[in-house]
Amino acid sequence: MTKDAVTTPLRAPFTQHAGDGGPGEVMEKPQASDGVKHSIGELLTCPFCFDVWVITGFTIGHVFAPRATRMVADAMAALAGADFLQLAYATAQQVAEG
């Protein structure tokens, strides 16, 4: 979410392009130098900061909407598995090429 090229339009009101990252990633920085807009920009560009808020949301979700939260968590786990397999495949290709 914080570096994915596909989610750039969601971050655009709060961030500006700062370069390219890894495959399918972009590097961005907050647009504003201070205030709420800067804080949101920091949150949307920092994977470690964003993770804290996501896990907080999941914890609250498990209390108030456990069934829906489990469904979202299962989808995220499947996506993480697919990402892992893609990275393993890319690594195997690099090793095979020498």
Structural account:
By secondary structure, the chain is mainly alpha-helical. It is 66% helix and 11% strand. It is built from 4 helices and 2 strands, in the order αββααα. The chain has a two-stranded antiparallel ribbon. The mean pLDDT is 91.
List keywords for this structure.
98 residues, flat, 4 helices, 11% strand
Structural class: mainly alpha
Q: Give the overall pLDDT as a whole number.
A: 91
Query: Could you give the order of strands across the largest sheet?
Result: 1-2
Shape: flat
Number of strands: 2
As an assembly, this protein is single chain
Low-pLDDT parts are: none
Strand content: 5-15%
Order of helices and strands: HEEHHH
Taking the alpha carbons of the first and last residues, their distance comes to: 32 Å
Q: Helix amount, in percent?
A: 55-70%
Please give the radius of gyration in angstroms. Answer: 17 Å
Secondary structure tally, helices = 4
Q: Biggest β-sheet, characterized?
A: 2 strands, antiparallel
